[in-house]
Amino acid sequence: MSRLNVVTNENANAEQQALLQAIQSQLGMVPNFLKVFANSPAALRAFLGLHGIAGEGSLEAQTRERIALALAQQNACQYCVSAHTAIGRKAGLDATEIEANRAGSSRDARAAAAVKFAKALAEHNGEVTTAEIFAVRDAGYSDAEIVEIITHVGLNVLTNILGKASRVEIDFPKVELKLAA
Fold first, then answer.
1. Domain shared by 45 and 73, yes or no
2. For residue 181, is pLDDT > 80?
3. In Å, how far are 2, 33, 38, 49, 180 from 5, measured between CA atoms?
4. Do 98 and 108 touch, CB atoms closer than 8 A?
5. Total domain count for the chain?
6. Domain limits at 47?
7. Which residues, including other chains, have CB under 8 Å from residue 29's CB and lie 6 or more apart?
8. CATH number of domain containing 29
9. Which of 55-59, 110-114, 137-141 is predicted with the least confidence, judged by mean pLDDT?
10. Contact yes or no for 57/141 (Cβ under 8 A)
11. What is the pLDDT of residues 82-99, one digit of tens each?
12. Could you tell me the pTM of the whole model?
């Protein structure tokens, strides 16, 4: 049970209803974490705006999902692991790749560098080494793409925190977290 209100059409004010309807028309559903975000229409608009802009970047959808999976596992957010497993599959990631991503890597060498860099950013609150910057650059990522990786880390940490703090009900096929070794 969610520890924060889950806004639905039945308990939403006019502004919240408009946001939920816009999400419904775009996605065909309104994920529960967005219903929690809807408690603050300003926060939801900010998230949707940044998410939309970040999606316009040059990082491939698969790489964005790889990053989301790695961080959801690293940050122990079962909601986000479940959501991004489903979204990752729709983006073309298979089960073996999803497992590699959750472990902080990828079968694709270039994508593995992005995932590793994303994990380091989250683990060290942005305090990455010059060597880590060079490693992701040497894998073929431009400075623009490195900034996009950083942006996606921020977005995913935000959603991981919201998912964990709210304990929102998982509305995707449930995926268990892996226990730390």
1. no
2. no
3. 7, 10, 9, 22, 31
4. no
5. 2
6. 14-55
7. 171
8. 1.20.5
9. 55-59
10. no
11. 999 999 999 999 999 999
12. 0.95
